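Exercise 7. Predict the joint structure of the components listed below.
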Amino acid sequence: MPVSRSNGTATTPGGGAAAPTSAPKRRKLRFRGDLVLAILVLMPSIVAVAIFIYFFIAYTFYVSVVRWPTLLPDYTFVGLENWKRMFQDMRFQIDLRNLVLYAAGFMTQCIVIGFLLASLLDAKIKSEALFRTIFIFPFAVSGIVTGVVWRWLMFPSSGLNQLFEMVGLGFLKSKWYTDPTWGILAVTIAAAWQFSGYIMALYLAGLRGISHELKEAAAIDGANTWNLYRYIIIPLLTPVTFTAVVLTGMGSIRVFDIPAVLGTGAAFSTDALAFHMFQLTFQSNKMSSGAVIASLMIILAAFLIGPYLASLHLEETQ
Amino acid sequence: MTLQRVWTRGAIYFVLVAFAAWYLMPIYLMLITGLKTYEQVGITKMWALPYPVSLDGFSQAWVKVSANFGNSIMITVPAAIISAFIGSINGYIFAKWKFRGSNTIFMLFLVGMFLPYQGILIPLVQTLMALGLYGSIVGVIFVHCVFGIPITALMFRSYFAGIPNELVDAAKIDGCGFFGIYRHILLPIAFPAFAVVLIWQFTTIWNDYLIGLIVVSNPRLAPVNVAVKNLAGTYTTQWQVQMSGALIAALPTIIVYLALGKFFMRGLLAGSLKG
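Solution:
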C-alpha cells in the first residue's frame, strides 16, 4: 500500500506547516481522502463498463429467451424456443460450419506465416526494418478496404487467376470466394493478409526476448537449426502462441467487414455469424433471433477470454 | 559450408521478398486501377499499367466519399482525444491508487477489449435512442469513447506502472494530491503513452465499420468506410472508382503508420497485453 509507505518519511522537508507530531496522522487522512477521490474519479468508467458491457450482455441473453419477433418489444418469456429454432435453421448451420473452416484457415495462416516471417527477420537480415514495415502495414488498413480490394483480386475471371496464368502457374487457379463449398476459405486469405503481420510482430518481440547465449549454447551442444526450434525456441514462445491463438480465434468469431463486402455468397458459402446477426436484427427486425446469435457469439468468445484473463491474473500475482 | 550458407541466406531473402510482394500487391492493384479510365478497366486488363494516367476515378470517388471522409475526421479526432484522456486517468488510478478490488475491476474492464460487438448491439441501439444520441455523429463518438475505456486503461496502466512509486510518494510528501500528482508528475512524462494510445484509437476508430453502420442510419452522416462499402455496391463494374475510394479511405491510417511506425508497433504489443 503506497499510503502506509509514505508515512515512514513524515519528517522530510516540505511537509507543510503542521506540527511534526500530528503531521503523519493528518497526512494519512489526506491520502485516504485522495484514495476516495481516485475511486470517485474512476466511478463513471466503472458505471459505463457495468452498463455498456455487462448489463448489455445480460440484456442480449434476456432478449434471446423472449418472443420479440418484430420491431415492437414483446417480452413474453418463451424459454429456449428461439434457440431451438435457430439451431434448425439452414443458414445458421452453414454459419457454424463456416466458422469452423474460417477459424481453421485464418488461425493457421496467421500463426504459420507470422512465425515464419518473424523467424526469418530474426536471422540478422539487411533492411529488416523495411520488411517489417511492409509486413505489418496491412494492419493499418480497414476490413472494408481489405474486402473491396480482395474482391477485385479474387475475381474469378481476372485478378490472381489471370496472374497465375501469366506466370505459368495456371494450376493454382481457383473460384475463390465464388466457390459454393470452400468460398469461406478465400475470405481467410484476405483476412490473413490483413492480420498476419500483427502476429509476426508478436513473435518477433518474443524472439527478441530469447537470449543469444541460449541459442549459442544450444549450437555448441550440437543442436542443428531444426532441433533449436523444435526443443528450445518454439517451447519458449508458447505464451506468444497462446496470445496468437486467442487473438485470431476472437477475430474468427467476430469477422464481419469482409463478408459484408463480399455478400453471403452462393448458398451462404461466405456468410458469417456476425453478418447473419446483423441482417436478422437490423434488416429483418427479428430481435430475438438476432439475440440468439449474439448470445452464442458471447459464449464462444468467453471460451477464449476466460483462459486468457486467467493466465494474465496468474502473471500478475506472481 | 560457405556455399551452403550462401544458399540459406539466398533462400531467406527470396522468401522475404516474395512475402513483401504479396503484402504490397493489393496496394499496387489499388493504385494502378484507381489511375485508369473506365475504358482501361476490364477484367482481362487488370494487371496492365494505366496509360494514359487518369484521375477520373479519384475525382468520381472523391465526390461520393468526401462528405463521409469529413465525418470520419469529425468522429475520429475527438473520440481518440477524449478516450486517450479518460484512459490516462483510469490507467493512473489502476497503476498508482490501488484499492481493495481494483485489480479485479481492471480484469473486468479487460473483458470489454475482446467483446464481439454483436453481443451488445441490440441494447446499445435502444439506449442511444433513449439518450437522443442515435443517428448522430456525437452518438458514434460516445460509443467509441465507451468501448475505448478498456484498451486505453490497459495501455496507460502498463506505462504508469513502469514509473517508480518513489516518485509518486515523494510528490505526496511535497504536498501533491491526487490531481497534483497526475498533473505535475505523470502528465509531463506521459507523451509516449499518449502517442501510442492516440495512434491506436485513431486507427481503430477510423477503420471501424460496424459502429458507424449501426449508430448512424443516414448515409450522409456515415463514416468513410461505410461510404466505401456502399460505393463498391453501386459502382460494381467501375473498379477504378471502387479502388480510388478504397485508397482514399485507407490513406490517413497508412500515413499515420508510416510516419509514426514506432508508436504503432508499441501499440500492437500493448494491445495484445504482452508489451
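Discussion. Residues 1-21 of chain A have pLDDT under 50 and may be disordered.
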